[in-house]
Structure formats: structure tokens, C-alpha cells
């Protein structure tokens, strides 16, 4: 999910949240695919930002971007005039740590998604070739493994919703 300016919206993007005017009237519900006419309608209605699914627009360097690594790097510059103020230095430290943690979390999520996609593509390729695969709980023949990593692992395995 990404909040973007309407000017950067493109046809084909999908809304992650409903678009609501300042007076509370809902223009379009979530899940709607954007079109040229819908984007023009948002601009005419005075809507400045919308929230779309995924992360379709690279906002590096733009106000409101979510590049937390760059935000953490900018802390020295932003707090350069407050080196003698203990409160401001504590605030700088907290913000820097927050942005670094957010950057690390996003990097971990991206790596996990890439790994899952690579594993999914590997399974599809093997299924297309008809070759069985072992997944740690099942052997190559598809039967549950016995012993330490077998049935007990299968039963204790957590299922992602």
C-alpha cells in the first residue's frame, strides 16, 4: 500500500483505500481500478492524494517518500544546528534508530518476497517438468518423512493465513 499524489496516479493502479472528499463523501471505494476519467475526476474534486495497492511509484527524494534509509542518513543534516541541545540530540537518536529499523524491516520483507517468488517459480518449473520435490516435511515421493522432521514437523507446522 502506498499513498501517492493524484498527479502520479496511472490507469491500471488499484485503490487500497476508499477516496473520500473533505466533506466526508466517498467518491470511490477500495479495490477499484483507476482509469483516466477517474483520475481526472479526483483532480476536479480537489483530491490531492490517494492510496493504491502495492508500491507502484518510486518516490525517492520526493516529500512523503518512504525510503527510510535516506531519511536516517539525513538526520545529521537536519539536526546540525542543535548539537548543544540534549533533547534534540535524543530526538535525533530516536528518529535515526526508527528509520534504520523501518529500512531494515522493509529490506527483510522485500528479500522474503523475492525468496518466496523464486521458490514459487522453482516449484512451477519442477511441476511443469513433472519432477517431484522435497520440501523438508515430505520426501521426494511426496510422502511425509518419518522421525524428527517428519510427521511431528508436519503437525507442528504453522499455516500462514
Note down, in words, how this protein is organized.
- The chain is mostly helical and 161 residues long.
- 43% of the residues lie in helices and 8% in strands.
- It has 4 helices and 4 strands.
- The chain has helices spanning 36-44, 68-78, 86-129, 151-156; strands at 2-5, 19-20, 26-28, 49-52.
- The strands form 2 sheets. A two-stranded antiparallel ribbon has the order 1-4. A two-stranded antiparallel ribbon has the order 2-3.
- Helix 2 runs antiparallel to helix 3 (86-129).
- It is flat, with a radius of gyration of 24 Å.
- The two termini are 19 Å apart.
List keywords for this structure.
161 residues, mainly alpha, two-stranded antiparallel ribbon, two-stranded antiparallel sheet, 4 strands, 43% helix, 8% strand, flat
The secondary-structure element order is EEEHEHHH
What is the share of helical residues?
Answer: 40-55%
What class would the helix/strand composition place it in? Answer: mainly alpha
Distance between the termini: 19 Å
**Could you list the spans in which at least 5 consecutive residues all have pLDDT below 50?**
147-151
**Average pLDDT reading:** 75
How is the biggest beta sheet arranged? 2 strands, antiparallel
Query: How many DSSP-defined strands?
Result: 4
**Count of individual helical segments:** 4
Strand order of the largest sheet: 1-4
| Large-scale geometry | flat
Please give the radius of gyration in angstroms.
24 Å
Strand content: 5-15%
